[in-house]
Amino acid sequence: MTAPTTQSPDTRNQQIAFIGGGNMASALIGGLLKRGLPADQIQVIEPFAEQRARLVQQFPVEVSEAPGESLRRAGLVVWAVKPQTFREAAGQSCAHTRSALHLSVAAGIRSDTIAGWLGSERVVRAMPNTPALIGQGITALFARSAATDTDRLAVERVVQTTGDFLWLDQEAQLDAVTALSGSGPAYVFYFIEAMVQAGIGMGLSTGQAHQLAVGTFVGASALAREATEPPDVLRARVTSKGGTTYAALMSMEQNGIQALFIQAMQAARQRASEMGDEFGAN
User: Fold this and answer.
1) 48-82 per-position pLDDT tens digit
2) 48, 119, 243 from 203: Cα distances, Å
3) Following CA atoms 264, 265, 266, 267 in sequence, which dihedral angle do they give, to the nearest 10 degrees?
4) What is Dmax (Cα atoms) for the chain?
5) Which residues partner with 42 through β-bridges?
6) Which of 14, 121, 243, 271 has the most C-beta neighbours closer than 10 Å?
7) DSSP annotation string for 210-236
8) What does the alpha-carbon distance between residue 236 and residue 216 come to, in Å, rounded to a whole number?
9) What is the C-alpha separation between 64 and 235, in angstroms, rounded?
10) Spatial distance between the Cα atoms of 37 and 21, rounded to a whole number of angstroms
């Protein structure tokens, strides 16, 4: 975990614009407002009427259908758009945002592509994950060399409202982050789903199995966070040879579950790289 950095007056008073108003933008906006950022320092560009209506109902911020001159007020622009729509959105907005710092939460689109589309080298890429919606996320960050220390502070101020963050030295690592933590919540839900189904099959009610499965993941994750030992040691401590846990883990090992899981994550990393080529092509 990276500790929050003390904010400078400049970053506290910065106008922030969100291009795209979906779940991740909503999480960031909600976190900023809870931390005391005045609502009149936030504006959102959201082309879809249904999502604009939700944003207006949820937050007292300025919401527009299309970019305009008001974007020039923004010192920080957060690109919370889908990878396949990033280029179009950039083309519509870049004339108004060239002097801003840019923070992208779009998977796969590389910073050199973003810099080219926006006409600015002050670009930071972020890979958050969905627990950001409840303030329990983890976000990896990479900054291009043109991003200053003050720029990094501004980015930290935004992302730390949704959980922990860490900085990466190499942009290529973001593909691995996408596979591990970006997509990771879906893996957890997948295993919870399987545990619930198994519990039901062994005679528990759906509610009982769900409570036990979720509680196990929450407790085990908290223990892993607090423990000084690595996960393999924690696992060994609850695995007595010949016992029930041993029987389950041996079944997984014999069926190659760990190797298949690692292979699945490598597939996610490969897809992240492909998205950079596919959606970032000129």
Assistant:
1) 999 999 999 999 999 999 999 999 999 999 999 99
2) 46, 61, 21
3) 50
4) 69
5) 16
6) 14
7) HHHHHHHHHHHHHHHHH-SS-HHHHHH
8) 17
9) 51
10) 18
